[in-house]
Amino acid sequence: IADSIAEIADRFRSSLEKALQKPAEPGWHMDSIELRFDIAVQAEAGVVIARATSGATFSAKLTLKAPADTQ
To answer: Is the pTM of this model over 0.70?
Structure first.
């Protein structure tokens, strides 16, 4: 699982680096991007009963920045 997540993170990183480059024209631009991916796995085993649960969450936070010359 860790290798798969690392591969996905590398793909995101290469794509998002382009988005974070400051544009040539003035105006609002993306200042930062924060992505979070969480996986939770829980397993229980008893004499007769076995139970497993799992869950995943994904969240993204984009920070935009105004141009410095807006007064």
So the answer is: no
